[in-house]
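ZP: hey, is the nickel (II) ion complex queued? I don't see it on the tracker
AM: it wasn't, my bad. submitting now with these inputs:
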Amino acid sequence: MKLLIAVVQDKDSNRLIQALGDSHFKTTKLASTGGFLKEGNTTLMIGCEDHEVDKALDLIRDNCSQREQMVAPISPMGGNADSYIPKPVKVEVGGATVFVLPIESFFQF
Amino acid sequence: MKLLIAVVQDKDSNRLIQALGDSHFKTTKLASTGGFLKEGNTTLMIGCEDHEVDKALDLIRDNCSQREQMVAPISPMGGNADSYIPKPVKVEVGGATVFVLPIESFFQF
Amino acid sequence: MKLLIAVVQDKDSNRLIQALGDSHFKTTKLASTGGFLKEGNTTLMIGCEDHEVDKALDLIRDNCSQREQMVAPISPMGGNADSYIPKPVKVEVGGATVFVLPIESFFQF
Ligand code: NI
Ligand code: NI
Ligand code: NI
């Protein structure tokens, strides 16, 4: 058994939890308070057998990888709207940090 | 030293924390947000010496094991109250998942 | 790689997170709900390379050690204010508990 601790973006967490559940992984979601370093992050604890670690990592990679997203900027208020052509901008979203921890023993009561 | 990470039901957590404290275990309670997989769960971190792991596991088992509980169902609103005899139903409550993690070192400042 | 789990007082946590960030440690702040055992505590997860564990421990010690603080007591309401000389009292503040956990593997996506 291993314990995976995954820190992912809030916006990706529900999709990941759904995917993990579909594959019968047991997931516990901890409240991250953000803080200024990790604003908007969620911490998941995933217990899994050794031979399922790669599957779990695949699901995290598939659902949470850092990627670029085009975002339409807000039109400036009071600007010269006629001549203003808003250009979508690229932003980085997503990203996951995963720690795989050895478990000495595991119990369910 | 070991670190026990225990995921238990909210309704069992105060009784368990009390029992752990009475036995001088140091317990930190993390906020679990529930999520749809683990609605109403609490995560506890319990640091303990190797020879006390069994004692801690006993306390978790005693206070949090999955068990059946009889629950009186709510009378249906607007039903024929005279002829309605509510039957208590069995529901599963409690349950605990515990990971025992090895600790490389431990510090108190 | 190691995973440090540090439980510190809320009042020390922002200063510590700032110090860890200045030294390029990656820190995730978990919400502790307090509970009656650990009222006002914050749990931090800090991932770091083996050779940086001592540095991280130094930062935790420097920013969170248990220490005495002089606190001016509140004047008693309706007391004889003229003859009352409030004496500052010593209280214990701070303190940190740190678990250093081995990591089997570590991923960033
Ligand atoms: Ni299997
Ligand atoms: Ni002992
Ligand atoms: Ni280095």
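AM: back. Chain B touches chain C at residues 1, 3, 13-14, 17, 21, 26-31, 42, 45, 47, 101-109 (CB under 8 Å).
ZP: great, adding it to the tracker
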